[in-house]
Automatic annotation (TrEMBL):
Coiled coil: none annotated. The keyword Disulfide bond does not apply. InterPro entries: Ribosomal_bS16, Ribosomal_bS16_CS, Ribosomal_bS16_dom_sf. Belongs to the bacterial ribosomal protein bS16 family. This is 30S ribosomal protein S16, chloroplastic. Signal peptide: none annotated. Keywords: Ribonucleoprotein, Ribosomal protein. Pfam families: Ribosomal_S16. Gene3D superfamilies: 3.30.1320.10.
Amino acid sequence: MVKLRLKRCGKKQRAIYRIVAIDVRSRREGRDLRRVGFYDPINNQTYSNVPAILYFLEKGAQPTVTVHDIFSKAEFFQERIYN
């Protein structure tokens, strides 16, 4: 099963996160299938590769709760039908 979840990057005390499609059995820093965006909590910036995210959601990937909240704040689901 594939999930959309966060992968930590950056320096100490200055974390940024990549939003990646990754196998459930992989660890947080494990090899990802594809990078689909990033999230910077310090500057509150988000970048999303919308076609890649839609591709993985159509294939059955589940976003984690945190990634779902990030997408909701970015108004990703308001324009699209997602259950």
